[in-house]
Amino acid sequence: MSLPLVISEGFLSRKSLKKRVGNIMFKPGRIAIKQSPSRRIPGYELALDYEIEKCPQGQFVNFEMHGQIAGNPVHERFSLHRDVAYNFLHSAGLRLRKYGVMQGLERTPELRVDFEKAYADLRRRLGVEPGHPVDLDRFLLDRP
């Protein structure tokens, strides 16, 4: 995904986009994000770590989000079953609302490349291929 080059209402240059978002880093098992404050979003520095757990109910992905938002400490944990683990951004976004970040991470297009890497890492670790069935009840009802 290339970043928009046009500077006009509603678009950002690559330079202003980098300034706005700051640093984004992915490595297997971790996404780290540093966001400068803006009028709509408080500044934050967060890491979302994840690991696979096998238990009698199946495979789960355990997530731990930690860091700070507007200088306030953040520490949240949640687990998702393997077939709904790809919905982790929604679950993380719900938790971020408690700290004043109303726009979820999934709505931040400049993070997409790193999230795609995380999705690929999760697919590899869970042994899931595209087209793998999802339990719709779990997807709709399992909102940790």
UniProtKB/TrEMBL annotation:
Entry superkingdom: Bacteria
Entries under InterPro entries matching the protein: DUF5064
Alphabetical list of Pfam families matching this protein: DUF5064
Name of this protein: DUF5064 family protein
Organism expressing this protein natively: Metapseudomonas lalkuanensis
